[in-house]
Specification:
The chain is of the alpha+beta class and 86 residues long. The protein contains two helices and four strands.
């Protein structure tokens, strides 16, 4: 994956690329989604407040390009499995 201090982005032998580019702020979008979910839960618990029938999703704004690695969760899970089996 790293060759001569450079990250190699080409596809593997099967033609599958583990990397991609997205034009949204992934790191900024996750906290917005979590906050939105918490707000909805709080509204459902409150019985004295009239809940609006519609709620808009938080805006995920572009913040340049982000390089994403597809398969990170599987790699971490494999690392956990190998560490617990010893």
């Amino acid at each position: 994956m790293i060759d001569n201090r450079y990250l190699r982005l080409e596809s593997d032998a099967a033609g599958v690329s583990r990397f991609g580019l997205v034009e949204v702020d992934v790191d900024g979008g996750v906290p917005k989604a979590v906050h939105f979910a918490n707000s909805i839960q709080q509204l459902q618990r409150q019985t004295d407040v009239e809940t609006p029938p519609n709620a808009g999703l938080p805006a995920v704004r572009p913040a340049g390009w982000s390089l994403i690695y597809d398969g990170r969760a599987q790699d971490i899970a494999a690392t956990f499995r190998s560490n617990t089996s010893t």
